[in-house]
């Protein structure tokens, strides 16, 4: 991910989410040195992800696939890249939060060996209030 990608990334966020990340959030992630990656086809950036790493632990902060390309394997490919990078940088555990109603993402994470370890009540904003988050975990590397 580069600063020059951010307008396209934010457009993907707006297309995919009711409460998208802002350009400022991505700028802060790049400046902080988080693992910030994009996946593109010949026409556009189709997915992006951000992961933080600290003291043998990584945390998936966002993984977004443009709605036109969801279900095509791009999320899995990008997430596996992020997990591989994290392992190469000495991470041994990975955590993430996911909306309790996001069945597609939960299915992806479970298929990669993640298990639910906790729940955060009222974590995510919605148009009608708040939604719970599932906290998921797995050890690295991927097998």
UniProtKB/TrEMBL annotation:
Q: Which PANTHER family match?
A: ACETYLTRANSFERASE, N-ACETYLTRANSFERASE DOMAIN-CONTAINING PROTEIN
One GO MF term on file is: N-acetyltransferase activity
Q: Which HAMAP family match?
A: RimI (MF_02210)
Instruction: Write out the similarity annotation.
Output: Belongs to the acetyltransferase family. RimI subfamily.
Keywords on record: Acyltransferase, Cytoplasm, Transferase
Q: Name one Pfam family in it.
A: Acetyltransf_1
Annotated ranges, domain N-acetyltransferase:
1-141
Name of the protein in question: N-acetyltransferase domain-containing protein
């Amino acid at each position: 991910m580069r600063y020059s990608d951010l307008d396209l990334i934010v457009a993907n966020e707006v297309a995919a989410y009711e409460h998208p990340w802002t350009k400022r959030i991505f700028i802060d992630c790049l400046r902080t040195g988080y693992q910030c990656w994009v996946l593109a086809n010949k026409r556009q950036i189709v997915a992006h992800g951000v992961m933080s790493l600290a003291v043998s632990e990584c945390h998936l902060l966002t993984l977004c696939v443009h709605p036109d390309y969801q279900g095509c394997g791009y999320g899995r490919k990008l997430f596996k890249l992020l997990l591989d990078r994290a392992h190469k940088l000495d991470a041994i555990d990975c955590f993430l939060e996911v909306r309790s109603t996001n069945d597609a993402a939960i299915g992806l994470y479970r298929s990669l060996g993640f298990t639910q370890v906790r729940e955060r009540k009222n974590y995510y904003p919605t148009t009608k209030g708040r939604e719970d988050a599932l906290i998921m975990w797995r050890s690295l590397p991927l097998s």
